[in-house]
Write a structure and sequence with these properties.
By secondary structure, the chain is of the alpha+beta class. It is 35% helix and 22% strand. A hairpin with a 5-residue loop joins strand 7 and strand 8.
């Protein structure tokens, strides 16, 4: 799956994740004013030993043409941590335009695949940090372990940098032999089986027959969804290389309360709000939402205890239809709850995860073609990652908000990502520049829809 994000990338589809995070500026400034860049770089350098992947770049295995990681002997932290500013008055609209331009630029594959931009001059005495990390390195869950600048200690002081000597890459013949051996053993991992807790607190492996039945049922459901074409909408068109990025925030406790009132979860409320925003978007474009078949891919973390904390991508997806035909916000949420409850018990995410594991031993080109085709079976990606529930700091400066970004896939002009932090649920909207000149109108539909749901929940 990591390699597929490299394979499907092209000039119009940069495959990096990202975020824009806002911090207090006071502790990050020099005494005479201006960002204390050297102090921030020193803090990042002192943490590099915790994330070796950040000093690695791509290489290719001979014959197989499969990508691997090797240490970058020319690694330069100053290339990856960059400094810029928004012009006065530095309002949020200016910042969003800058973020869109930064996120439009592809990462250089000859270097480690990440960048961090420090942006000063943001109104209300704030500093913005714009992060870009290629999706082949991590998913939304594992990307947190690659953060060099922020942590939960308000009194953190930079550690002295540790000596580092880049390792020489192995000879091509050695990489070729290792890859052949890996591919020979990879199918055995599919027979490992998921384990469930028994009454005594131990672990029992489910029977092979039960596992196959569950996966087969899920595969059939996923195939049915994939074979039914989604409706053509203004959100699904060939996209270009330029991006708009926007964001909003909702109070997390109130979102949870609404979800409980409907018998659902935070994710259910999110999907209902997205459904309402899409419905209004289509109506503004003179499209009738009543007959639209609209499906979103909802990534699901499938890590087990044994691979918790590992880098790379370990996600599956639930292909979730949204009830755009429903005009009533509360009834729309109830229908989403019913749909997701059924999907969670269907085995569909396990089946999609199995397809992802097949990529370890099928030819990469085949799996990339499958990925491109499957991306056209959904209209949008909506991903929600749990974040820290206590304050985060960068050299004593408190993090105020953080808005994530998920890349666009082929034929998707808008994707939505969320992260929870302290008492907020923070949204990030990544869109194609040409297809959504009215992105802000879509974003404004989210808090308006939330207000409608809050009123309905109060009387439910």
């Amino acid at each position: 799956m990591d390699a597929m994000f490299l394979e499907i990338e092209d000039a119009n589809l940069p495959m990096h994740m990202g975020s824009v995070t806002l911090f207090e500026s006071g502790p990050l400034l020099r005494k005479g004013g201006g960002l204390d860049l050297e102090r921030i770089l020193a803090a990042a350098e002192g943490r590099l030993h915790r994330a070796p992947r950040l000093r690695q770049k791509l290489a290719t295995i001979p014959m197989f043409e499969h990508p691997v990681w090797i240490d970058d002997p020319s690694f330069n932290l100053h290339y990856h941590v960059r400094h810029t500013a928004v012009p006065h008055p530095g309002d949020v609209r200016q910042l969003k335009r800058l973020v869109g331009r930064l996120l439009s630029q592809r990462l250089d594959r000859s270097k480690p695949l990440w960048e961090t931009w420090l942006v000063e001059g943001v109104e209300q005495d704030r500093i913005a940090v714009v992060s870009k990390l290629h999706h082949c390195m991590a998913d939304g869950v594992s990307s947190g372990s690659l953060n060099l600048l922020a942590g939960t200690r308000s009194d953190y002081r930079p550690e002295p940098p540790r000596p580092w000597t880049p390792r020489r890459p192995p000879p091509g013949a050695r990489m070729l032999a290792d890859e052949a051996f890996r591919r020979a053993l990879a199918p055995l991992s599919l027979l490992g089986g998921r384990r469930t807790a028994n009454a005594e607190g131990g672990r029992d492996a489910p029977s092979l027959l039960d596992s196959l039945r569950g996966v087969a049922d899920g595969a059939w459901r996923a195939a049915q969804a994939g074979l039914r074409p989604v409706s053509a909408t203004p959100l699904n068109t060939e996209i270009g290389p330029h991006r708009r990025f926007d964001w909003t925030r909702l109070p997390l406790a109130d979102v949870k309360r609404i979800g409980r009132a409907a018998g659902g979860t935070v994710n259910d409320v999110v999907l209902a709000l997205v459904a309402g925003a899409v419905r209004e978007f289509l109506e503004r474009r003179a499209e009738d939402p009543a007959g639209v078949e609209f499906r979103v891919a909802v990534p699901v973390n499938v890590r087990t205890e044994t691979d918790r904390g590992e880098l790379g991508n370990r996600v599956s997806s639930l292909i979730t239809p949204l009830p755009l035909d429903e005009a009533d916000p509360w009834r729309r949420l109830q229908r989403v709850v019913e749909t997701t409850r059924e999907l969670k018990g269907s085995g569909e995410s396990q089946a999609v995860d199995l397809v992802g594991q097949l990529a370890n031993w099928l030819p990469l080109g085949v799996m990339a073609a499958v990925s491109r085709a499957s991306s056209r079976a959904v209209n949008m990606i909506v991903t929600n990652v749990p974040g820290p529930q206590r304050p985060v700091y960068m050299l004593g400066a408190r993090m105020l908000e953080s808005h994530p970004m998920v890349p666009l896939m082929a034929n998707e002009a808008l994707n939505v990502a969320l992260v929870s932090y302290e008492d907020g649920l923070y949204w990030g909207f990544n869109s194609d520049w040409e297809a959504l000149p009215d992105l802000h109108d879509f974003v404004e539909s989210i808090p308006l829809g939330f207000e409608a749901l809050a009123k309905a929940a109060a009387t439910a």
